[in-house]
Amino acid sequence: MADDNNTNGAASPTLSILAQYTKDLSFENPGAPRSLQARDKAPTININVNVNANPLSDTDFDVVLSLNAEAKDGDKTVFHTELAYGGVFRVAGFPQEHMLPVLFIECPRMLFPFARQIIADVTRNGGFPPLMIDPIDFTQMFAQRVAEEQARAKVEAVPN
Question: Is the peptide bond before 33 cis (omega within 30 degrees of 0)?
Fold first, then answer.
């Protein structure tokens, strides 16, 4: 039987949530009460997602998941909501090359269900059906972010 204990003395990687919090929340219903009337078609909803991470110490990081949703009927805003939902994470024992994926994939993945519920509640409380945001592929978002940063670095490295 294989021994699952780490025998080389190195600590096994750990990821813990120390705190979760709403950093910023806003909901705008500029056309109320007219915007609450029945409509022929559903509004167009655009959702933007962003993740930021900042170190608090060698092992503790503040990760903020930002969700911005805007519903429009033609050129008129039906509702607009913004949420910055944060978590303080303790990240220890990971190799350095795994730190960014942990912070930008795993941490927001843990925050997302809570942020999604807040958005659903605030849109429902604003008089609309709850906005249930589809699951987000944070791995793909991170890969896209890395590719954009690499492309930017190549452009900046080209002499004029």
Answer: yes
